[in-house]
Every structure is written in structure tokens, then in C-alpha cells.
Amino acid sequence: MDAWLLVLLGAAGGSLRGLVDVYNQTMAWQEARRAHRKAVAQEEDTGEPPRFREYFDLIPDSVATVVHMGMGAACAVLFGLSGQISGVYAALVVGVSAPTLLTQLGRTQMVDEAVTGVSSTQGPGAEAQQ
Question: What domain range is 13 assigned to?
């Protein structure tokens, strides 16, 4: 698969993650409005109904979506060019799950460290110094 196609598909996956975030915030706002209407009907609350901007902050949420798109594009290219994925669906899925994938990769223990018990940041002979 071409690298530019992987970039576009990964970025599309990242934007889908942003859309899921907007959906979740919209559902939370809707539930809060329903609770408010119920409280008004029971004469427990007479205040203003919750506003959407209390649940969605345009600038930070937009920046987060752009960051997700970048992470998705990068992950799709890395996974695609290394032969770990192939196909449109796989590139989209990698784009959507890029933050989780990158977090997991950051936590992965190196094989040498797992076998020897010595951290690669400590270097050889670190056990003797301790």
C-alpha cells in the first residue's frame, strides 16, 4: 500500500476518534438536559438548562482531534510500511487506536531486558555496580 494512502487512512481513523469524542460529549449533554427537564417538571430546579459549550470546548477538542489525526497517520505509516497491516480497514483501525497503540509501545519491555533482568538504560555491568 502506498505511504500517502496510509497517511490519509490513518488520519481519517484519527478523525473518527475525534468524532467519537464529540458523540460522547453530545450524549452527556443530552442526558444532562433530560435530567434538567425532569427536575423542572418536579419543581426541583428552575435554573437554565445545560449548554452544549459546557460539554464541548471547541479549541482544545479541535486540537485533540488534529493530534489524533497526526498520531493515526504516523501509526498507519509505521505499521503499513513494516508489513504489519495491509488493507484499508486495517489502516483505519490503526488510525483510530493510535493513542492506545503508542501507549502500549511505550510500555513494552525490551526482549533483552526481559531475559537478563537488566534495563537497557542501566547498560552492561550495571548489576555489578549495585
Answer: 3-24+57-110
